[in-house]
Amino acid sequence: MTLNVYDLMKKLSETPAPSGYEQRIVETIREYWHPLVDEINVDRVGNLVAIKKGSGKQPRHRLLLAAHMDEIGLIVKAIERFPDEAGGNGFLRVTNVGGADRRQMYGQKVIVHSTGGRDLLGIIGSLPANMLPGSVRTKSFGYDELLVDVGLSYDSLVEEVSIGDFISFHQPVRKLLNRRIVGKALDNRAAVAATTFCLDQLSGREHEWDVLAVATTQEETTLLGAHTSAFSLQPDIAIAIDVTHGKGPGVKDDVAYELNGGPVLGLGSNVHPGIFRRLSDAASAIEMTFQIEPHQRFSGTDAAGLQIAREGIPTGLVEIPLRYMHTSVESIALADIERVGRLSAEFISRLDSETLSEIVAEMMD
Amino acid sequence: MNELLKQLTETVGVTNDEKSIRIIIRDLIDDHVDEWRVDTLGNLIATKKGTGESDLRFMVDAHMDEVGLMVIGYDSDGSIKFQTMGGFDDRALLGKVVQVGTKNLVGAIGARPVHLLKRSQYNNLVKTEAMRIDIGAKSKEEAQRKAKIGDMATFVTDYEELGEMAIGKAFDNRAGCAVLIELLKGEPYPFDLVAAFTVQEEVGTRGAKVAAFAVKPDAALILECTPAYDLPNKRDVSPNVMLGKGPSIYVMDARTIQDPRLVSHITRTATEQNIPFQIRRPGGGGTNTAAIQQSGIGVPAATIATPARYIHGPTSMINLKDYKNVIALADASMRSFSREVLKR
Q1: Which residue of B97, B142, B146 is in closest CB contact with A171?
Q2: Min CA distance, A145 vs chain B (Å)?
Q3: Which parts of chain A have pLDDT scores under 70?
Q4: What distance in Å separates the CA atoms of residue B338 and residue B336, rounded to the nearest whole number?
Q5: Cβ A82–B239 below 8 Å, yes or no?
Q6: Residue among A131, A177, A251 whose CB faces B229 most closely
Q7: In the Cβ-directed half-sphere of B175, how many Cα atoms lie within 13 Å?
Q8: Is the torsion defined by CA of A274, A275, A280, A281 positive or negative?
Q9: Cβ(A303)–Cβ(A265) under 8 Å?
Q10: Can you tell me whether residue B72 is helix, strand or coil?
């Protein structure tokens, strides 16, 4: 299989998967991963777990590679009729699933995933500013103003849609200049794509350790997938792949990283220093430029969950710079995805039977 | 899929730079009119000769411009500064995909992400001045090469249909343009029909003013797309117009009282022909009707509009039945139109 990163990202991004509603993206990822791994299964909370066996002697060490597959979205909280009489229009009131940016929601296309299994295309609308109460007219939109409009009468709408139905954003992936793309849910399909590249690389090179590639569930809400997969799979080392803020409009300061500047290696409370060092060694070995992101407390990634599973797991964090996080115009450089795939494969192939004891020894060295 | 609406709404024609949409419309009407010309401001004015039964000159106006953005500068990181052309709510712009310049370069409008804001800042309105268009340029120089000062930008919104609704950008006023194109495709009217696809409505009905002066019509019909506020609303109990209730007929807006003879002719025609219609709630707003009505010695004028939700944003919505009924009502009103209607 020859992987084209743009085609892969387009397919992954345009498959809807709000947190907790990942059935469809599981199938998409499974198609890509299946030919690259030895075993692939969905666990009891919805993580997609793929095992690629290493060449080392049994019992082999195991590395968990986590990329969350869920995305931010919306959920139906009420259905309203206007005018409130027979034949009135139907509208959905919604609230967020994960940290969706409501400042930019007006005018976005969305897909309502009805419990009956239908997809309804709709628009996020609002009354115009001059008809809103004065107190909110000069503020960003709140969920009291925003509504989802699928163009149905109230009577037809309540037949199709129920309170609690999930909604995903609808925005096709498009190309910008310089091999950059724009679209929704690049957080975190970019990491799923990078993991796919890593598995593809490992198919052609020696690695002693077993690799457990996990597309995790519900990172955007509770880190459910990270906590549970690390507990059940009991890896010796874990790496989370995620996105981080890219430098760009509105973000000039040191909290963000250059697009096309290479992988960003997390450092701080969610990251084991020994794993960080080995990731940077791997980057240097293949002469890959990387950036470093120090996290004060919570990295906001699966690394936070992986690290504290069971008795604790040495955990690393590799990130891809992304502009406009949690909007429908997330933007990344495709080359960074390929780089993170290559770096992860290099890191994995350098692991041997001594690595774990070396990491332990370094703690007192 | 309504291919005409798809083509017209997906084409770019930001106010003051209507060339792309003008050429497309010219190509669409060329076989159905006897002559066309483009005036100084860029109005496309076409004549479809009548059967000769009546010597009236009847003008039908549909503005072809849309609201949009204009490139005004650059940041050192290659992002583009812009200003709005026509009326916008700042909140409609953030997080949208746009196309810039005649090569339709894709860009994204972004700002500082929510994670990097203080909790209290989340409720602040993000002003247009704080937003940038990001085309993926690596430097100011690259951005300058790809997008010139003065280049226009508008949303990238695929036209899509959902049941009897259609969603897309610029139904205001490509819906009106599409109606006028359909009228030109029909059989000749008793009188000469002068079709004016006008420019610069969104910045003060400027195209219609000179078009009407040049055409000097005996009567005029303005085809529009009017905002529908048929959404849950605490302050008011009734919608101004409502999607699905038919063509919206103007009686009064902020800038006109429409010609009562024409208005009653249109409503009578609708009733006779069993075409649903709704009287738009009198109040604010303004269309080319104001400019045409005041042209020269004055022109009896009226307006028929397709109602649309969320206009002047990236994605608006119309009911396709309303759109078809606007075509039917405009056509029937013109076929039955004569000097009798204008008698005092």
Answers
A1: B97
A2: 9
A3: 1
A4: 7
A5: yes
A6: A131
A7: 35
A8: positive
A9: no
A10: strand
**Cβ-contact A252, B123 below 8 angstroms:** no
The token pair at A342 is 């290559």
Give the distance from residue A291's alpha carbon to the nearest chain B alpha carbon, in angstroms.
Answer: 18
Q: What is the Cα–Cα distance from A271 to A269, expressed in whole angstroms?
A: 6
- Whether A264 and A257 have beta carbons less than 8 Å apart is answered as yes
- Give the DSSP H/E element, type plus range, for residue B304: strand B301-309
- Neighboring chain B residues of A182 at a CB cutoff of 8 Å: 97, 106-108, 134, 136
Other Cβ atoms within 10 Å of B59 Cβ, number: 26
CA dihedral sign, ordered B214, B215, B217, B221: negative
State pLDDT tens for residues A134-162: 888 889 999 999 999 999 999 999 999 99
Distance from CA of A162 to the nearest CA of B (A): 18
Selecting from B227, B238, B315 the residue whose C-beta is nearest the C-beta of A83 gives B238
- Look-up: residue for tokens 């993991």? A195
Find all residues with CB under 8 Å of A350, minimum gap 6, and list them: A278, A281, A282, A285
Q: Could you tell me how far CA B158 lies from the centroid of its own chain?
A: 17
CB contact under 8 A, A126 and B124: no
Q: Can you tell me the distance from the alpha carbon of A160 to that of A162, in angstroms, rounded to the nearest whole number?
A: 7
Q: Determine if the peptide bond prior to A260 is cis (ω within 30°).
A: no
ipTM of the complex: 0.87
What's the CA gap between B86 and B100, in Å, rounded? 17
Instruction: Sort strands B35-38 and A119-125 into parallel, antiparallel or unpaired.
Output: unpaired
DSSP sequence for B120-188: GGGGB---GGG-EEE---SSHHHHHHHS-TT-EEEE----EEETTEEEES-HHHHHHHHHHHHHHHSPP
The CA distances from residue B344 to A350, B260, B341, in Å, are 94, 11, 9
Give which of B203, B210, B151, B208 is closest to B312, Cα–Cα. Answer: B203
d(CA B120, CA B327): 50
Strand partners for B222: B61, B303
pLDDT digits (tens, 9 = 90+) for A294-345: 998 889 999 999 999 999 999 999 999 999 999 999 999 999 999 999 999 9
Which is catalytic among the residues B66, B182, B201, B202? Answer: B201
Q: Are strands B192-198 and B57-63 parallel, antiparallel or unpaired?
A: parallel
CB atoms within 10 A of CB B202: 22
Give residue A110's identity as a one-letter amino acid code. V
The amino acid occupying position A318 is V
SS3 A129: helix
Residue with tokens 């209607």: B341
Token pair 């249109």 is at which residue?
Answer: B266
Which helix or strand (DSSP H or E) is residue A11 part of?
helix A5-14
- For the segment B52-65, the average pLDDT, to the nearest whole number, is 96
Q: Which whole-number Å values give the CA distances from A350 to A10, A191, A205, A278, A355, in the listed order?
A: 31, 21, 11, 9, 9
